[in-house]
């Protein structure tokens, strides 16, 4: 009798495998980082072969730590950094080029060219997304235009595309020996190539974007009882297990946080920051700079949609303080450094390193630090860096309230930064609502495990997921309304200083 559901969580900076029991508790976790490749300014790449190697290592590590075998695993789910684009040879399993990461801005000229006819919102009605360097479609186009021989291979059907979920699932279900070339609705909705209504690739957009349809994976439910494929006996799991769950990381967190009813929202604090609001079976078109995206699709049930506010740089800003400025030796030290000062000293740090995402969508913006005086020290830098995450979240929440017509009364939070007490208190202060951390804060992996476990009956209903959710800690606002609005107004002023930096 299977005891656990497994999740492979392939993120921007690391890969991990986690095993969960029926109560949704973590049984074991094994995690490894991979290299961040920066060939030139604005370009960000990963080595897909390194990611696959790390994936195999973390699967073996998680099983070892739990003392588990394949027979103990009911199902495998995958969750992934979204929009990161891989094109590989289905005969050899070798990538044609490094994975182009979601933060990469090299496709700005392609996006500008596509926007000449119809503007930045040319495809928004169909796909819910503005033309931006963030999404996969323009990245595929860049590879087809710039990698020797790739277009011919794509036309032949030898070169196949996937976001990282497709790459991991293809490899984990056998690779060149019959690996499943699939994606789910949530990941497909981040390519700018899938029609939100039909949940299929849109031939008109494929033609305009110049992407051959035969490159693309089959679009399947996020939780699929008909299963995508099975792990081979000689694979990293060491036995045959159904692979039947797939969710982009932010949608996985929505499921892991049990935001399964209309109007429920969560915010995930990772490399970037992503707030999602469940809008039910209706795709709500945003008027305030948010994305319309798929939330999840369980089996043959109706798809559930979401509004999303995407922020490119949050946790990555702390890594930047560590790696580029050497202000701290390890990311958790940022809180202690920020606590050496009473406030931000009048400085605001807008980390538009990859342009601005929601709600502005300005790829020509670049990062700024404003308000500098001789008084400012490295403690103020640390505090301003943390506050930037909270301010950006407030901007997204304001847009979400305007789009949905419903004021959020509390915010469920998850991800690595939710253990930063200073940040979570300031987040509650600047939002003016309680901020709630669940018992299992790594909800991304949990959501992928739920998707897989629902498909195989390890969890029977969505109510099982709701019952498993438990509160760990709540922060309540303690800032005066006048102070909240004054500091937020100064932040908004700082944001305008980033606009139109790139000519």
Task: Please give a handful of descriptors for the protein shown.
7-stranded mixed beta sheet, 16 helices, 503 residues, 6-stranded mixed beta sheet, alpha+beta
Summarize the structure in words.
- It is built from 16 helices and 23 strands.
- With 503 residues, the chain is an alpha+beta fold.
- It has a seven-stranded mixed beta sheet with strand order 17-18-16-15-21-22-23. The protein has a six-stranded mixed beta sheet with strand order 3-2-1-5-14-13, with helices on both faces.
- A hairpin with a 7-residue loop joins strand 17 and strand 18 (304-311).
- The termini are far apart.
Task: Please specify the SSE layout and strand pairing.
Layout (H helix, E strand, L loop, with lengths): L3 E7 L3 E7 L5 E8 L11 E2 L1 H19 L6 E8 L4 E5 L9 E2 L7 H8 L8 H4 L8 H11 L3 H7 L2 E5 H9 L9 E3 H4 L5 E2 L4 E2 L1 H7 L8 E3 L8 E2 L11 E7 H8 L8 E5 L3 E8 L10 E6 L7 E8 L3 H9 L9 H6 L9 E3 L17 E3 L7 H27 L6 E4 L6 H11 L3 E4 L4 H14 L5 H7 L2 E5 L5 H16 L7
Parallel strand pairs: 1-5, 5-14, 9-12, 15-21, 21-22
Antiparallel strand pairs: 1-2, 2-3, 4-7, 6-8, 10-11, 13-14, 15-16, 16-18, 17-18, 19-20, 22-23
Helix pairs in contact: 1-6, 9-14, 10-12, 12-13
